[in-house]
Write a structure and sequence with these properties.
Number of strands: 21
Radius of gyration: 26 Å
Number of domains: 2
CATH architecture of the largest domain: 4-Layer Sandwich
CATH topology of the largest domain: Metallo-beta-lactamase, Chain A
CATH class of the largest domain: Alpha Beta
Largest sheet: 7 strands, mixed
Strand content: 15-25%
């Protein structure tokens, strides 16, 4: 199966021609222009054909003359451009074309088909399975569509060589029925929409950078996505950050340019690699470090969250902070509240996923327990050495959070200066044995 992406953008593309936001400006400057999402399979099956697609095919060196099957997901105008049938007629194409789409889409197409055109329309609804030109296709329910555009579907396409693709745009969070329908599919390619990026209040039937990784987690849990599945984010809009590729990589997904031909089975960075891997996320107060650390593991099914905060009875403000963190954690994560982080790291098995939040509260805890605020760091140094040794030796995939406390005003008290200096030494020691170190500044990750 050869898959060429004729477009990877949303309805208005990326950049939006009328928009002056930073994301659109960066796209224009870099020359990365994304048109309406469409996929051409083996040069003869086309999924979605918005009004931009015929011209996009020409720009990317693809010919549509060999198209024998057209699959259309739903009736929104960026997915169905009826004039393409007229263009095909003008080119004198007399060979048959089979179109599979929901009824509302077929109604849009009928007026554009000439009386002698060999265009055959086939109504499709979720759950239908059919064979066409050597492919086996199953229509799946999309969380999309309304009374105006009618039903929307997704497509599960298997080629004669056994290669299998999931085309999943447009949709909000996948229904349980759709997840069940693709169990054990082990797709070679998944084209999964990710329309709204960091704009989480859109209120539409689309995915964003909060819901996208959770769909990957659910697909992995049922064997639809495996370590060798090439997951590509499509239907991208300017609500996405400029560094989208970096945001997707920890989840085992990627972005590609329009016109890209995918190599089936090529694997992006996997969210759960087998080899040990340590990531340290540093940042000041309210820099977004915890949220970023959590996002790195958002597509994983099993995560152990190591909460290092000591109990503070009677401190309502602290209790509210802890409650906020707890609320953000997915229900399927396991929380371990402990000050003995080293033992957890050493007991973890290869491939386990751990999130430690955070080393600053851990240091506060061990200094309290050792009575070290007067300046005797003998026991603290031993604890730090033990933690660093465990960090170096762990077989798990670990993401840890720690505060950067050395960039502000020099603390006014000896204990404050002692803590600042000790925290700095701890951060430097952990960073030396980390595979990745990220500094959060004003909510933005800066790789070090």
């Amino acid at each position: 199966m050869k898959v060429q992406l004729l477009g990877t953008g949303s309805a208005d593309g990326w950049p939006n021609a009328f928009c002056t936001c930073a994301s659109c400006g960066a796209a224009r400057t870099s020359g990365v222009i994304r048109g309406q999402t469409s996929a051409l399979i083996d040069d003869r099956l086309l999924i979605d054909c918005g009004p931009e697609v015929p011209a996009a095919a020409t720009r990317h060196g693809a010919e549509l003359s060999g198209i024998r099957t057209l699959l259309i997901t739903h009736g929104h105008p960026d997915h169905v451009g009826p004039a393409a049938l007229l263009f095909r007629h003008w080119a004198g194409r007399g060979d048959p074309l089979d179109v599979y789409a929901p009824d509302a889409v077929l109604d849009q197409l009928r007026p554009w088909i000439g009386p002698d055109d060999a265009v055959h329309l086939h109504p499709v609804t979720a759950g239908d399975r059919f064979a066409c030109d050597g492919f086996v296709v199953q229509a799946l329910a999309a969380t999309h569509g309304d009374a105006t555009i009618g039903e929307a579907v997704l497509f599960d396409v298997t080629a004669s060589d056994g290669a299998r693709l999931l085309y999943a745009t447009d949709t909000g969070p996948l229904s349980d029925a759709t997840i069940a329908a693709v169990a054990d599919a082990a797709f070679d390619v998944v084209l999964l929409e990710e329309t709204f990026g960091d704009f989480l209040e859109h209120g539409t039937q689309h995915l964003d950078l909060a819901t996208f990784p959770d769909q990957l987690r659910r697909l992995r849990a049922v064997g639809a996505v495996t370590d060798s599945t090439d997951v590509v984010a499509v239907h991208l809009s300017h609500h996405n950050p400029v560094d989208l590729y970096r945001r997707l990589a920890p989840w085992g997904a990627r972005v590609v340019a329009d016109g890209t031909v995918l190599r089936l089975g090529s694997s992006a960075v996997d969210a759960r690699p087998a080899a040990p891997h340590r990531t340290l996320v540093l940042g000041g107060a309210r820099s977004g470090k915890s949220r970023y650390a959590e996002s790195l593991l958002a597509a994983a099914e099993h995560v152990t969250y190591i909460a290092t905060a000591p109990p503070r009875p009677g401190d309502d403000e602290w209790a509210a902070r802890v409650a906020e963190h707890r609320t953000r954690r997915p229900d399927h994560w396991t929380t371990v509240e402990t000050g003995d982080v080293a033992t957890v790291l050493l007991d973890a098995s290869r491939g386990d996923l751990l999130l430690v939040d955070c080393f600053t509260l851990w240091l506060t805890r061990v200094m309290d327990d050792a009575g070290a605020w007067s300046g005797d760091l003998t026991l603290i140094d031993k604890q730090i050495d033990r933690l660093v040794d465990a960090w170096r030796a762990t077989q798990a995939q670990v993401v840890a959070v720690s505060n950067e406390v050395g960039q502000g005003v020099v603390p006014a008290t000896p204990s404050g200066r002692l803590f600042r200096d000790t925290q700095g030494r701890l951060n430097a020691a952990i960073a030396r044995d980390s595979d990745d170190v990220v500094l959060m500044v004003a909510g933005r990750p800066v790789p070090l």
